[in-house]
Structure formats: structure tokens, C-alpha cells
Amino acid sequence: IGDTIEWRIYGDRDWNKSKIALIYRTPVGQGISMRRAYYESNYSAFKPTALLTSEVIPEGLKSDAVKNIQNTDTLMNNFNTTLESIKTLIVILILAALVLGGVVLYNLGVLSFSERTRELATMKVLGFFPKQIRLLTQMQNTWLTILGILLGIPAGFLLVSYMFSTMHDTLDMMPYISTISVIISILVTLILSELINLVLSGKIKDIDMVSSLKSVE
Question: Domain map of the chain by residue range?
Fold first, then answer.
């Protein structure tokens, strides 16, 4: 506030100087705003190119000089339609993230189970009950999931900040992720991890101890 900026209307060659009296934020359509009286007294005649109105334009006022007529209700309806489309896209992205997370966790669990087949068979030979082995594997997988959450949350915030920093100058949006959104994401990830643990733990009773403990020829 108080700094001087140079500006010009699109299509004009002459630049004008003005002091900043107030700063406001708007997501789209970056520019400057000033009162009509100030503009006319310091620069030139006010020639509007667009009018926003909530009134219905009478047929008598319509002419060929008017390119388009939109009232505020139409603009609000168009804006709400755009928001609904964005919400639908967000839901699709969330569902895709859930599917991707489930596939990754399941594949990692299957890979870990395959690599530890001999270890699990040895534990069964030593007298461990299947319930104890399942509890041990579930605890290990849960701790790995928690570690991934602790590393993923800060990385996610950094990624969101970087994405918004690369936005065009005509857009001004502040990234905001609520605490409840983070908590819901953590809970959904833990629930998904536990469901996959239950699926994989059922494979423990099917381990063939004899073939698993044979030496690789």
C-alpha cells in the first residue's frame, strides 16, 4: 500500500501511474479497481465495456452495439455449474486414489508375504499358532503404513505448495487443507491397510511347511 504502479487499458499505448490504496484478493481475473469519479477526474472519460445487473434488460434497450447480455443470475448459475463439475472431478480423483492405494498396499503385502514364506513356515514349525503369526504380520504392516503416513503428509503439503506456486499470474489461490481432511485421509488409509492385512493373513494357514522349508536346488 502506498507504492506507485504503472498500468494501461488493453489496446491503449499510453501508460498511467496510480498509487495503491488497498489490496484485495480474487481467485481469477487479476487487475486493478478504482472508483468511476477518481478515474474520470484523473485520467479520461469512463467508457464501460461490461455492466453487471440483476434486472431484466427491456427489449427496447437492446441494440446491435450490445454484443452480449448476461445478468448476475446467469453468471451465478454458470459459476455454480462450474463448481459442480469441479466437485465431480474431485470425487473421481479421490476414488482413483483409493483404488491406487489399495492396489499398491496389496501388491506390497503379497510381495512381502512371498519373500517371507520360509520365515513364516519356520515359525509354524517352532510352534507358533497361526493367530500369533497373523498378529505379528499385521503389526508389522500397520507400522509400515504409519511410517508411510508420517512421510507422506509433509511430502503432500510440499507438493501442493509447489503446484500452486507454478500457477499463472492471472490466478491467485491459497492452498488450504483442513485438519479434518488430513484426519479422514489417515483413517481411510489405516482402514484400507487393515482390510488388506485380513486378506493376506488368511494365506498363512495355507503355507506348506514341508515345501517351504526345502532347500532351493
Answer: 1-51, 72-212
How many whole angstroms separate alpha carbon 36 and alpha carbon 16?
Answer: 15
Task: Dump pLDDT digits (tens) for 36-59.
Answer: 888 888 777 777 777 766 677 666
Asked if residue 125 lies in contact with residue 213, where contact means CB atoms within 8 angstroms, the answer is yes
User: Model-level pTM?
Assistant: 0.62
Grid coordinates representing 15? 501508460
- For 8-16, which contacts have Cβ atoms below 8 Å and span 24 or more sequence positions? 16/43
Would you call 175 helix, strand, or coil by DSSP?
coil
Q: What does the pLDDT look like over 54-95, one tens digit per residue?
A: 677 666 666 666 666 777 777 788 888 988 998 999 899 989
Compute CA distances 57 → 62, 71, 72, 115, 154, whole Å.
7, 9, 12, 74, 53
